[in-house]
Amino acid sequence: QVQLVESGGGLVQAGGSLRLSCAASGTVFKIDVMAWFRQAPGEQRELVASITRGGNTNYADSVKGRFTISRDNAKNTVFLQMNSLKPEDTAVYYCNAAIAAYASSTHLSGYWGQGTQVTVSS
Questions:
Q1: What is the residue-averaged pLDDT of the chain?
Q2: Is 15 helix (H, G, I), strand (E, B) or coil?
Q3: Is there a smaller number of Cβ atoms within 10 Å at the N or the C end of the chain?
Q4: For the chain, what is the radius of gyration of the CA atoms?
């Protein structure tokens, strides 16, 4: 079994910073793309940022220049550094990863973390 466990959410004032972490544990052979999504109340879940195993990154326009995604492949961990936070960044943030459990796995499976709340006050 694979688990993704997020940490680092909380309450911060506008203009502040937070760093989210997400660690994969369990039966993990290889992790391909890792990503952060977020979902605000009454809204659909949206992609915030993604990173490939080789370090190629992609960001939503709303967070470009403020958020930075990174990963530690040796520790099966992905990070999201969030700077210059705005009230509209308030949401539950979810980690997502495409994982091959075994060397013999013929495909990747997608896994989600349980979510961590980020609240930005004005």
A1: 96
A2: coil
A3: N
A4: 14
Tens digit of each residue's pLDDT (9 = 90 or more) over 87-102: 999 999 999 999 998 8
Q: Please check the confidence at residue 104 and state whether its pLDDT lies above 90.
A: no
Chain centroid offset of residue 65 CA: 17
Residue in 32, 50, 34 with CA at minimum distance from that of residue 107: 32
Helix (H, G, I), strand (E, B) or coil at 74: helix
> Is the Cβ–Cβ distance between 9 and 93 less than 8 Å?
yes
Q: Which residues of 28-37 are buried (b: 16+ CB within 10 A; e: fewer)?
A: beebebbbbb
Bridge partners of 72, per DSSP, are 77
* Structure confidence by residue, pLDDT tens digits, 4-29: 999 999 999 999 999 999 999 999 99
**28, amino acid identity:** V
